[in-house]
């Protein structure tokens, strides 16, 4: 009897011990490697448990991927995994994440179809699809898309069938139809987008949407809103029609955004851009498309990219004694190594013993 009791106690202690691995590891995510462990992305998805991470090695993959569990699917290196196919996320995928993938289509289907699941997309590139990203059904409420590039699709983004999503810090370029479309039963929130070169509308809102801190240029129509729009703190320029069935926001701008090189798809801002510091901070994401903190200046910038703060690069290149009277002070020569003019009046200069004002 004593032996049985002792064995029971030992078994109990073994199960409860904090040093024992099995219990403490039960909730830890496993990482499944493609193709090192699994020959395809779908094979890894099928083998994964909720919460697992699927890490894809650099390369080109030809397959359709269906996800119905909360998994993280990510590339080993950003922009180095090229998926020729579609990704479909359904209701069981609540909490799933897709990161750092480059998707290419052949004019049909959706690059990513979110159907009734609350998911996070980040650093995705989708091109050549009928729809770059499609968000549908009420269960999608809370889905987020950050730092995505949707270019060369018929329709960049579609939010429909009572779906809801938030998109930030993203580029929507050269859609052969509209950049983004929100249908009558759906809703969306947009901040810090750059939407350019769409054949029809940059933004078409038949449902409900708020649009802030964004740049819409070179589209047929900048914003068309037969639905309900909260549109302000945006820059619309060089669209054939800037506003259709809506009016300019009180803080909107209508001037050249001064991109670095839009002809070559470089939509960073130049230092003289009117979009600099022109946004609403409360609507902006914490970081821009490249991970740069917002704001860098006196306010957040419009568009996907935050202009880096200007650094003063002043160099004291020479120190000279007063040639007429050494007792009255020194002369210094200051060289500006930066790219912008600097007003040095009022600048404080110290030689370690005293502080002087220029």
Brief summary of the model shown:
This protein is mainly beta. It has 3 helices and 32 strands.
Describe the structure.
By secondary structure, the chain is mainly β. The protein has three helices and 32 strands. It has helices spanning 2-16, 21-25, 41-47, and strands at 31-34, 53-56, 59-62, 65-67, 72-75, 81-84, 87-89, 97-99, 102-104, 110-115, 120-122, 125-127, 131-136, 143-146, 149-151, 155-160, 164-173, 180-182, 187-196, 201-205, 208-212, 215-217, 221-224, 228-232, 235-237, 241-244, 259-261, 266-269, 314-321, 330-336, 348-350, 355-357. The chain has a 17-stranded parallel beta sheet that branches. The longest helix has 15 residues, at 2-16.
What is the overall pLDDT average?
Answer: 88
Q: How much helix is in the residues?
A: under 10%
Biggest β-sheet strands, sense, barrel: 17 strands, parallel
Q: Which residues form runs of ≥5 with pLDDT under 50?
A: 1-26
The outline comes out as globular
Rg is 27 Å
Structural class: mainly beta
Termini, distance in Å?
Answer: 93 Å
Number of extended strands: 32
Beta strand %:
35-45%
Question: Helix count, per DSSP?
Answer: 3
């Amino acid at each position: 009897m004593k032996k049985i009791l002792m064995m029971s106690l030992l078994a109990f202690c073994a199960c409860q011990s904090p040093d024992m691995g099995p219990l403490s590891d039960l909730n830890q995510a496993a990482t499944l490697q493609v193709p090192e462990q699994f020959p395809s992305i779908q094979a890894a998805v099928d083998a994964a448990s909720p919460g697992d991470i699927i890490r894809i090695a650099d390369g080109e993959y030809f397959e359709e991927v269906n996800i119905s569990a909360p998994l993280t699917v990510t590339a080993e290196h950003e922009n180095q995994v090229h998926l020729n196919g579609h990704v479909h996320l359904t209701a069981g995928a609540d909490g799933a994440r897709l990161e750092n993938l480059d998707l290419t289509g052949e004019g049909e289907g959706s690059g990513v179809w979110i159907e009734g699941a609350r998911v996070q997309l980040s650093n995705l590139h989708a091109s050549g699809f009928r729809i770059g990203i499609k968000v549908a059904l009420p269960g999608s409420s809370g889905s987020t898309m950050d730092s995505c590039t949707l270019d060369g699709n018929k329709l960049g983004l579609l939010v429909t069938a009572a779906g809801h999503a938030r998109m930030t810090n993203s580029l929507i370029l050269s859609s052969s139809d509209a950049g983004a479309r929100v249908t009558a039963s759906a809703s969306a929130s947009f901040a810090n987008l750059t939407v350019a070169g769409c054949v029809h509308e940059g933004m078409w809102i038949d449902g409900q949407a708020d649009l802030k801190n964004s740049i819409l240029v070179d589209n047929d129509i900048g914003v068309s809103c037969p639905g309900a729009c909260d549109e302000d703190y945006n820059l619309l320029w060089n669209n054939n029609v800037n506003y259709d069935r809506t009016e300019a926001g009180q803080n909107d701008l209508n001037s050249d955004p001064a991109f670095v090189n839009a002809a070559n798809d470089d939509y960073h801002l130049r230092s003289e851009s009117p979009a600099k510091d022109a946004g609403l901070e409360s609507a902006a994401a914490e970081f821009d498309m490249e991970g740069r903190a917002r704001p860098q200046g006196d306010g957040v910038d419009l568009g996907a990219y935050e202009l880096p703060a200007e650094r003063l690069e002043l160099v004291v290149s020479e120190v000279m004694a007063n040639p007429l009277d050494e007792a009255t002070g020194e002369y210094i020569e200051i060289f500006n190594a930066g790219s912008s003019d600097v007003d040095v009046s009022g600048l404080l200069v110290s030689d370690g013993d005293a502080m002087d004002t220029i």
